[in-house]
Design goal:
Layout (H helix, E strand, L loop, with lengths): L9 H13 L2 H30 L16 H24 L4 H32 L2 H5 L13 H54 L3 H9 L3 H6 L2 H15 L7
Helix pairs in contact: 1-4, 2-3, 3-4, 3-6, 4-6, 6-9
């Protein structure tokens, strides 16, 4: 009897990449989650210390309204994306996955992480509201104007922002896989030059005012949705770089 080899389906090959990433949940999920909770705990301790020091003296109503601590996890996930690709690319391609399979699976993992962390932050914001700001009128997970947003909108807004940052990380990760640290340095150097050049052109053409006015008129969800072009461009750029990367033994 002659055996007939059946090539694995695209879904199976992509799932292989997902499983490889999922085999290291500490780097992808637990570490950023626990450190975010740690940053929150430090903020809570600071709030309690301020209240203790104030004694009977009243604080301003918005004393603990503004906090950027939750952004830590957002930017840390850029690093997570770079590390995840560096640690798994050669191994996964060595298992027989193509670069396309690997990038599709990796993209699925990054989208799942963005949705998970976005939903998790919104859940914590809901607890924050239900406990009157953790009993001290503090706002960590939904600071400032985000306090009044519906939780579903908050989750979607965070997920969109996180997806953008993760795919910027995917582009940087592709640069690292192909050209090591030099590629990442060049990548972020080019991003910095583009950002400065864009600001200069806006100011030089007197367009900065209208652009800021337009952006200020967007709702928080519209502002988050405006990150989609950056997410898409970063995702495509990451694949174009990765398709010529050489696995390292």
């Amino acid at each position: 009897m002659t055996a007939i080899a059946v090539a694995p389906s695209l879904g199976h090959r992509v799932a292989t990449t997902v499983r490889v990433h999922a085999s290291n949940p500490w780097a992808l999920f637990y570490t950023p989650a626990f450190i975010t909770l740690g940053v929150f705990a430090l903020n809570y301790a600071i709030w309690r210390t301020i209240l203790l020091a104030a004694g009977d003296k009243p604080l301003a109503p918005d004393a603990f309204d503004y906090n950027g601590g939750v952004t830590w996890v957002m930017f840390y996930l850029v690093v997570v994306a770079v590390q995840a690709m560096n640690q798994t690319f050669s191994f996964t391609v060595g298992l027989g996955s193509t670069r396309r399979d690997y990038y599709l699976g990796t993209s699925a993992v990054f989208v799942a992480l963005a949705v998970t962390f976005g939903g998790g932050i919104a859940l914590m914001a809901g607890i924050e509201r239900a406990t009157s700001g953790w009993g001290v009128d503090g706002h960590f997970f939904a600071p400032g104007f985000l306090q009044s947003l519906p939780l579903w909108e908050l989750a979607l807004m965070y997920a969109l922002a996180l997806a953008m940052l993760m795919f910027v990380g995917a582009a940087a990760g592709s640069m690292f896989v192909r050209w090591a640290a030099t590629g990442v340095i060049i990548f972020f150097g080019v991003l910095a030059v583009i950002a400065v050049a864009a600001i200069y052109l806006l100011v030089a053409s007197s367009a900065a005012g209208p652009v800021l006015t337009w952006f200020g008129e967007l709702t928080p969800l519209q502002a988050a949705a405006s990150t989609l072009p950056v997410t898409i461009v970063s995702g495509v750029a990451g694949f174009l770089v990765l398709r010529r990367a050489t696995p390292k033994g």
